[in-house]
Specification:
By secondary structure, the protein is α+β, with helices and mostly antiparallel strands. Helix content is 38%, strand content 12%.
Length: 150
Amino acid sequence: MNRKGMTLVELLAVIAIMSILTILVVPSIIKIRNETLVDDYNNRIEMIKNAAIEWGNDNLNLIPKTVSEYNEEDKSLNDSCAHPTVAHLIENGYLKGASSTKDTDEEGSVMINPITGEEMNELLVCIRYDSNDLLNRKLVSYIIEEWIIW
């Protein structure tokens, strides 16, 4: 018997197998993509914090010399900090690199939130000393929580 094509049953079997594979594979791909975006976002936040520390070391005169009791949980806007924006860090050369910014003709470099696709240039960074102990203190930085765009 000479057959020139697939029967309807064979076609339905192929479609069923492809559907099952799609159902199994697509959620895994989406999960991996989302994890990658979150990792990229966390890396950008760390890059911002490190750039802010570098900026703080170059601008010690702008950082308040005494700090209120340092509380790791208190990440709000306060007067114990210097508050540069991400845009300020980019403009002054502390944040650079193709992985963190994209160049636009009109505005210069823009840091993009990989999760939302929105600009992160207006985020405020708090740079402060971790204690009032003049011999053993160091600069710390964090993103002010209420300004994070999700």
